[in-house]
Specification:
Pemi-like Protein 1, Chain: D
Length: about 90
C-alpha cells in the first residue's frame, strides 16, 4: 500500500514504481471506478472503442460479421419497411 497526495489542483501523483508496474506512461488514460470501500484506478490498455469492440457479436449472426455496416443497415431498413407494410 502506498500513499499519494491530492494537490490544490485536485491532481494525484502516482508513485513511480506503480507507474512502472502497471505500464502507465505520460498521456496514458486510466479508468476510475467507485466501489464500496473506495476508488479503483485501472490502466486503460486500449481506447474505449477497442475495449467494447465485439461486445455486440453475440447478437450478430456469424454470416454477417464481415458485411459492411452500411449494407446491414440497408437490409434492416428494407425488412422494417416490409414489416410495417404488412401491418397497414
Amino acid at each position: 500500500m502506498q500513499v499519494a497526495t491530492v494537490s490544490s489542483k485536485r491532481q494525484i501523483t502516482l508513485p513511480s514504481d506503480m507507474l512502472t508496474v502497471f505500464r502507465i506512461k505520460p498521456g496514458s488514460r486510466v479508468i476510475l471506478e467507485s466501489q464500496k470501500k473506495g476508488l479503483l484506478v485501472s490502466p486503460l490498455k486500449k481506447s474505449i472503442v477497442e475495449e467494447v469492440a465485439g461486445s455486440l457479436s453475440q447478437y450478430i449472426p456469424s454470416a454477417k460479421r464481415n458485411v459492411p455496416f452500411t449494407k446491414i443497415m440497408e437490409e434492416t431498413k428494407k425488412a422494417a419497411a416490409k414489416k410495417l407494410a404488412r401491418t397497414l
